Amino acid sequence: MRPSHSHSSPSPVSATRADWRTVSTLLPYLLEFKGRVILVVVLLVLAKLTSVAVPLALKEIVDAMGQPKAMLTVPVFLVIGYGLLRLFSTLFGELRDAVFAKVTQRAIRRVAIKVFAHLHNLSLRFHLDRQTGGMSRDIERGTRGISFLLTFLLFNILPTLLEIGLVAAILFVKYNPWFAIITFVTLVIYIVFTLFITEWRMVYRRTMNDMDSKANTRAIDSLINYETVKYFGNEQFEAQRYDEHMSKWEVSAVQNQTSLAALNAGQSTIIAVGVTLLMLLAADEVVQGKMTLGDLVLVNVFMLQLYMPLHFLGFVYREIKNALADMERMFTLLNEHREVEDAPDAPPLKLDSGRVEFKNVEFSYNPDRQILSDVSFEIPPGHTVAVVGASGAGKSTLSRLLFRFYDVGSGSISIDGQDIRTVTQASLRACIGIVPQDTVLFNDSIYYNIAYGRPDASREEVLQAAQSAHIHAFIESLPQGYNTMVGERGLKLSGGEKQRVAIARAILKRPAILIFDEATSALDSKSEKAIQDELRNVARNRTTLVIAHRLSTVVDAQQILVMDKGRIIERGAHRELLARQGVYAQMWALQQQEE
């Protein structure tokens, strides 16, 4: 996938801006449940208030027990109150988690669907450049990141800040200001130290992620091409290529772990120093009689209570940064612009007779390599036009342009007089069926793959399409019939069987316009003759564009276009072209000799 991170960290300012952008992208998904979010904030505040009240209750108990008459009256109410406060601080927390679960999971689902749909809307060019393994990891990590970010921002960072504020206020008002000052300074040093070290560690984490995605891309690529690896005996070579990334990942992972140990040691040292100073000050005040034993316990418990969530801070900050980085990669996919967009307020295509016209079409994939030059032809309703020529002449590009996977550089393509750039892509593609050169099937049953032509078709219609494509008898002869799995990309079927599935799928779609893109190139001559007849039946009364390499398959076309280097150099019916003694006649003579 294109956006790969360089290993140098981005500047802090731009990183922060990117982080805020990522968070703001997420906000609309959260506001879907405004009521729940408000309730969560209320529960969060209640949970913190009760947890800050716990040490206050403990102080009262310790002081009450310190009275001389303590043997007689155990402060029952205080003890019960203390127990209830402890219970409620946990209970409010759990309630908050339960209420928020739906918000988080719905946001994850919404974002995942959005990214998935967006990827299908991106141009063919993007998909030819992408690396599936790495991209699937980015999406997976990005959706996990959302859950992480929301949970920790709301349930760790906010409550901790609230608690620090409350504790500092209590210490400042009730005791020697030095208690609040020491607590506050310790926390500031702790936070600065944690954030600084964590930032430094992020580089290792980023490299780890990068190498993880790359290794995954390599692995998936290699496994998809299992047969090729075997043909050339390159198992060892593939393992080495995979290990290139894994070895870099290992180095980063080790640095990641060792720097974590340094972080934890530093944090513990800072807290230990802070707690020691507080206890010294408190012990001195108790000796002087300015503070009770309960006050000493209170100060200690407060410090430990703040230390618990803060000890988590480094981890949380790191995970939030990771989550933001992961989400940023996922949202980068959403920012990939669609190369081919529907015009604003584009109407659906109004299909009348299905007349197709190419007018002075120019096209190139890259500016430096022209593919089509000044191509003009029309296919009258119900007619068949064939395009022949050497490979690389630009034949298959015609079908990609007609489907509007790319837009023409200049000139126009129209159906029934409507420029295809002015109508919706969905309506355009709904009226065109294709039998491609190499049929790629989904790793599902044969039935599913035929029904894919029109998912809402009835079982009868699917079986009928299979019969029309002369594959029904073959499917019925299989032990599992229509439920036979075809394997990844249809690898369990032969070329001819896959081709017939593709024909059945095209028939089921019932399109007005048909494209056969070298539809029989994968077949032997016997199958080809049989399938040729199918195609002829399917094409009857439909506007048909046949792209072919073998001329014997296009003899019946009403018009044949001969292409060379992106231009049409001859056109006419089979007999006319033979009589002309040009390029077509030479190709025909050559192929007749070969046969």
List keywords for this structure.
single chain, 595 residues, alpha/beta, ABC transporter transmembrane region fold, Rossmann fold, 3 domains, four-stranded antiparallel β-sheet, disordered N terminus
Largest sheet: 6 strands, mixed
Helical residue percent? 55-70%
Q: Tell me the name of the CATH class of the largest domain.
A: Mainly Alpha
First-last Cα distance: 45 Å
Supply the number of helical segments. 19
How many structural units, i.e. domains?
A: 3
Coarse structural class: alpha/beta
Name the beta content range.
Answer: 5-15%
- Rg from alpha-carbon coordinates: 35 Å
The CATH level-2 architecture of the largest domain is identified as: Up-down Bundle
Q: Provide the spatial order of strands within the biggest beta sheet.
A: 6-7-8-3-9-10
Order of helices and strands: HHHHHHHHHHEEEHEEHEHHHHEHEEEHH
State the shape.
elongated
Low-pLDDT ranges: 1-10
Mean pLDDT over the residues: 84
**CATH superfamily (homologous) name of the largest domain:** ABC transporter type 1, transmembrane domain
**Strand element count:** 10
What fold name goes in the CATH topology slot of the largest domain? ABC transporter transmembrane region fold
